[in-house]
Amino acid sequence: MRSLHGGESPWWIxxxxxxxxxxxxxxxxxxxxxxxxxAALTVAEAHGLPAPRLLAAELDDGAPRTLETVLPGTSTxxxxxxxxxxxxxxxxxxxxxxxxxxxRPHLPMRPRPIAVDDFARDRRLGLMPTxxxxxxxxxxxxxxxxxxxxxxxxxxxxWPGNTLRMGIRVRALIDWKTAGVGNxxxxxxxxxxxxxxxxxxxxxxxxxxxxxxxxxxRADDLAYWDAVAALNTPDSWSxxxxxxxxxxxxxxxxxx
Length: 256
Hints:
Aminoglycoside 3'-phosphotransferase, Chain: A, domain 2; 16% strand; Phosphorylase Kinase, domain 1; 40% helix; 9 strands; single chain; alpha+beta; two-stranded antiparallel ribbon
């Protein structure tokens, strides 16, 4: 048995003939998030989505915990950019967004990625440092009405570390603790932001191409969701990462 995150939940448990992941509350995972992960995996299995399968859940005794399958693959992406992998990642999240879903217990509306955080609000309240670029972007987004439709299932925290890949194939999406219902742009903007930071300016374009090819439609309101994803970022990043985030945000603002 070993921790998959800094000495606490989730736990990888391996026996002579089995391997499972045990999730329980921790300093970074709330009881509600354990329940959300279980609810999301139930929806994922019902629709054949690329995700672990829920084996057991105990959610009602004050100490929620779940068991889920372990899937083969790695969550580490290559150092060099891979167009094929970007396309595959875009296609993988398109499968999630094809599921029509109404809000329900443990799967609420998600207006932004990692919706349990609202760093743009924290900056407005003076709880975090800000910059003229972030202030301008927040003002622009606040003046706009959030796109109303379409809405469906969203993962809520799509980045390379929450994928399992085998070569250039995305085997599954993992860690569904902030999943819910929302616009596909919640996930698409977040993944585009993540690959822009990790790779180069072409990477988001390939993610978009993979998503549109798999979904059979054009993505709507892309600049809005890119800006929302860029605004919901912490302030404790390196100068290089901050610069790439800001470049991504400027490109979104130019299209708004």
